[in-house]
Amino acid sequence: MRQRSKSGFMNQKKIEHILEKILQSNEFRGSESFCRLLQYLVKKSLDGDPPKESTIAIDVFDKNISSDHFESSSVRVYMHNLRQKLNSYYLNEGKDDEIRLRIPKGHYLVKFEPANRDKKHEFYKILIPVNIILLVIIFALLFFNPVNFNSGIHDYSTNSHMWNAYIHDDKPLLLVFGDYYLYEDRALNRSRYVRDYLVNSLDDFQALVSGNPGLAYVYQASNHTLLGKFAISCLHDLSGFFNACGKETEIMLGSNLQWEDLNRNNIVFVGSFKTLRLFKNLLNDHNFEYIISPNTLIFKDRSKDTTYSYQAPKDHATGQVKDYAILSRFPGPNQNIITIFSSTHDVGHISTVKYFTSTKSLEKFEKEYFPAENSEYFFDALFEVQGFLRTGFQPKLLHISNLEK
After folding, report:
1. What is the pLDDT of residue 180?
2. Which end of the chain is more exposed for a tag (fewer CB within 10 A), N or C?
């Protein structure tokens, strides 16, 4: 059995070897449902028999697609997350694979393609109506009430070690905003979407229902996500800053990010640690670690061989917030640069983004901590932010550690 690719015919033995390597990877090992789904799709692709959602539901999951507890949307959720797992695999163990498996959106046939093939630029849509409304509001604010960025920002950008590579590089600049995972609750015979801070991916959701099989009839996987209110302020500051520097930006939700985007763009990510998704696979050797429960951020100062632990409490009665935010600047997989702003509360995102898009504070930081004229300085920094509700005060730098390129 053979499938034709751009590089010619590949025999079944080679395909089986490629598939087995993927199934034995850290990304797929232990994920029985996704292994079974990928094996099924590869077999159907080799047979030239495109499967339907109904056949996938029956053949892979032993479910009747017409039943109340397993709809066609569930198959689409599994497919979406299978693509994400493949993306994650190719960022790590499979980064040197010459042949890659790709499942185009809206299709169920697997394509075998050379890793170095050129792809036409794709435009991405933000799918959630609420997020679209937020973005419309943001751009309306930018149009009718432009950011008060003076001309000095454009002049300073030519000397800014932090952003110079972003502004003058030919690679596109992608702003990514982390969105939260939601699942569907039908306990009241009507649909509502639930945000559970312990459930941040389809894998987390499957763990939840597998521990209590009765929940599988009440809770359903979902394609819907939630974008935090921090995005309005952060997009306003970031897009205004880069536009003032003459650099165009593109915008994407973290849930839509693909491995191709991490190769093709310089990226700025803003979002909670719970929404890092693909970026988590790039942060294994960094100086910080986040623990969901209790809400704890750990920072490792390697120069002092010391580990620090911080918790970010929130006083719901008064609205007082103490947050801890990470700024991480590091090289991407394709001679590009990735910068991550991440914290646990909105005030951390808002304050640190504002700090690094303000000429005065940015210049002060670079003079004190950035090696002169070194745009390839990569580091992890931890800030403490005091705030009230979603209004933050000046971030206070607690730790900074350099990263080896």
Report:
1. 95
2. C
